[in-house]
Amino acid sequence: MARQTVLIIGASRGLGLALAEEWLRRGWHVIATTRGNSSRLDALAGRFGDALVIENLDILDVQSVRALHAKLDGRQIDVLFVNAGIALSNDKTPVDVNEQDFVDMMLTNALAPVRVVELLDERVVDGGVIAIMTSGLASIANGTGFWPLYSSSKAALNMLMKGYAAHHASDAHALLLMAPGWVRTDMGGDEAPLSIADSIPHVVDTIEANRGKRGLRYVDRFNTDVPW
Ligand SMILES: NC(=O)c1ccc[n+]([C@@H]2O[C@H](COP(=O)([O-])OP(=O)(O)OC[C@H]3O[C@@H](n4cnc5c(N)ncnc54)[C@H](OP(=O)(O)O)[C@@H]3O)[C@@H](O)[C@H]2O)c1
């Protein structure tokens, strides 16, 4: 079988970088995007050579997404994984939040990832997977009020992806909203219970397990459905 290809959007550090490393270890071809320089991604390129291609993309910059679409003409992508996200004003409420922080989260976490999917989906092969990193905090059913503004942006992401799925019901792609667990990264912080190694290999297993299956699921790293 030809080498499989994954395109990871937002892979400079944290979970995105770990996704790139995990798929490289599994022998895949990885196209990983950053919006600036990433010495950690460069170090991976040093270890894995041609198997890793690094591209520049800011998910808020539509032109950079269109440019990548053009550059990938003729390429077959087996998995598209939109990982980029931000968390701001985590302890704030609708009364004391800096409004721009909320707007930035809605744009980066909700609107932009689904727009990236809309602009790049034709590069994904039939039977392939389109995944976006959401959060367990996006679940309205399970909501506890933790990080309420960030959680709202991820719930909005889930709803936008529901809309995308409805409008693309005949596409032969598995669509996944992935909750990776609470993981120690710059965003997750030191108090998070999971290491990257506790999460990312399971995330990748779950993506691979959903290949060839159509329709949208909101799942955790163990491939278990999360209540919407
Ligand atoms: N860690 C957790 O516990 C946890 C739990 C649930 C969900 N998540 C989600 O998992 C994803 C990764 O989180 P993480 O913990 O790895 O966070 P992180 O360490 O803060 O990394 C965030 C990544 O997103 C990229 N990014 C942010 N804005 C971007 C933009 N406009 N365009 C392109 N890339 C952008 C960052 O790039 P730069 O280096 O250029 O800033 C970085 O690569 C996020 O979507 C997050 O919401 C994380």
Summarize the structure.
With 228 residues, this protein is an alpha/beta fold. Helices cover 39% and strands 19% of the residues. The protein has a single domain (5-220), classed as NAD(P)-binding Rossmann-like Domain (Rossmann fold, 3-Layer(aba) Sandwich).
Can you give a write-up of this model?
The protein has 228 residues and is an alpha/beta fold. Strand 1 (5-9), helix 1 (14-25) and strand 2 (29-34) form a beta-alpha-beta unit. The protein is globular, with a radius of gyration of 17 Å. The N and C termini lie far apart (37 Å). It has a single domain, classed as NAD(P)-binding Rossmann-like Domain (Rossmann fold, 3-Layer(aba) Sandwich), CATH 3.40.50.720. The longest helix is centred in the middle third of the chain and has 22 residues, at 99-120. It contains six helices and seven strands; from the N terminus they run E-H-E-H-E-H-E-H-E-H-E-H-E. The model has no long low-confidence stretch (mean pLDDT 97). It has a seven-stranded parallel beta sheet, sandwiched between helices. Bound molecules: NADP nicotinamide-adenine-dinucleotide phosphate.
